[in-house]
Amino acid sequence: MKRFSKEENSWMFYDWANSAYSIIITTAVFPIFYKSAATNAGVSAADSTAYLGYTIAIFTFILAMIGPILGTIADYQGYKKKFFTFFFILGVSATALLAFIPSDNWLLLLVCYTFAALGSTGANVFYDAFLVDVATEDRMDQVSSRGYGLGYIGSTIPFLLSIAIILLAQQEIIPLTATVASKIAFLITAAWWGLFAIPLFKNVKQRYYIEREPNPIVNSFKRLGNTFKEIKKYRAVFLFLLAYFFYIDGVGTVISMSTAYGTDLGISATSLLIVLFVTQVVAAPFAVLYGRLAKKYTGKKMLYVGIFVYIIVCIYAYFLETTIDFWILAMLVATSQGGIQALSRSYFARLVPKQNANEFFGFYNIFGKFASIMGPLLVGATAQITGNSSTGVFSLVILFIIGFIILTRVPETTSVSSR
Fold it and tell me: Comparing 199 with 28, which gets the higher pLDDT?
């Protein structure tokens, strides 16, 4: 494979930038910080986990509603970068703001987290859609997978720095409280995210677009309506989205609630942070490996592999008891987490018409985000009903099975002509 171009490298580098948010805010430091704040306020472990799940459901619902609409408008020349910039600024600003919220106000923490998550996931809608602008179809699997690989590697640097500050504070080696150390981690995340997004702003352009016309909002709604009317024309696209709806639900839920789940099992915050750091390191080469194997065996077959691994993860999680068990679970997740997300992104990018990529990635977002409502609600409700978080994680198995079955009915990737 020939060397990556400046545009491809700049696009991939945003994964390096944004993955700091994914590990520190979504997965590691913030959930532990929030759980501690909720516990100190007298909220039970099961209830605080449920409230986190409900919060994730709320912000994903909001983005799912506006994603296709904004995506359709963004297909016009010059709009994609503007929408990306808006959500990027929202995400970075709200992430930094987390550091200034009183640590005893768990509810306000969840509100600010909602805006940070809206910014991160909203920016990713348009970032993902830029894949069609930087890579040809035969390079999309490799570019997408390498992006995830860079993300895992890049995220380990601010994550390791954050862990070091938190652990040193906990051991009273540096004159900081654990609370202040966690807030410093939020500021590190915002700074890392903002700094390393610069190459994308400088070098990535919207190559495929629809020419601007009068009343762009009205015409965008008309184009969105035409997509629904011509749904049979996009059978492969929507079959894939339906499969994606189910299996990515489980993936996202495992990512966003893993530390809350580990805390409920009695695993210490220190152990959780170390496990998550090693998971990032292990996940990087596996994400790249998925891309290379996809070139040999097809992206669809590698998606099957990823789904199968996650089914094993959910079953194993039901029997989790010790820190060693959590280590094993985390390493299983590391083998497929990046691969299944990267290949889903590139598989879909090859299916959609390039000039309408934003509109279709809006649908990609709405299916993914509506799925992310169902998973956390399922885990949250099951945890409260049974008083056992393990049962909630186990219930995710059915989502992976349904996704697998539907994916078998998706035709091999053939792009649809643009409108």
Answer: 199
Burial class (CB in 10 A: 0-12, 13-18, 19+), 247: buried
> Alpha helices of 298-322 — where are they, by DSSP H?
299-318
Question: For 31-67, how does the pLDDT look when each residue is reduced to its tens digit (9 = 90+)?
Answer: 888 888 888 888 777 788 778 878 877 877 787 777 7
Query: Is the dihedral angle over the CA atoms 370, 23, 285, 17 positive or is it negative?
Result: positive
Quick check: helix, strand or coil at residue 215? coil
Phi-psi region of 266 (alpha: psi -120 to 50; beta: other; left: phi over 0): left
pLDDT tens-digit profile of 134-191? 988 888 888 988 888 888 888 889 988 998 898 899 888 999 988 899 999 999 999 9
What are phi and psi for residue 210, nearest 5 degrees?
A: -105, 135
Separation between Cα atoms, residue 276 and residue 336, nearest integer Å: 15
Give how far Cα 125 sits from Cα of 39, 67, 98, 185, 361, Å.
34, 8, 23, 25, 6
Within 10 angstroms of residue 412's Cβ, the number of other Cβ atoms is 10
Q: Is the Cβ–Cβ distance between 80 and 73 less than 8 Å?
A: no
DSSP helix/strand/coil, 210: strand
Write out the CATH class of domain 6-203+221-407: mainly alpha
Query: Among positive and negative, which fits the CA dihedral 339, 340, 345, 348?
Result: positive
Whether 179 contacts 26, CB under 8 Å: no
Neighbours of 405 (CB within 10 A): 11
Residue ranges per domain, the chain? Answer: 6-203+221-407
Residue with tokens 């619902």: 61
Phi, psi of 226 (to 5 degrees): -65, -35
Q: Which 3 state secondary structure label does DSSP give 76?
A: strand
Buried b (16+ CB within 10 A) or exposed e, 69-104: bbbbbbbbeebbbebbeebbebbbebbbbbbebebe
Distance between CA atoms of 182 and 92, rounded to whole angstroms? 16
Half-sphere CA count of 232, side-chain side, radius 13 A: 0
- Phi, psi (degrees; rounded to nearest 5) at 76: -70, 150
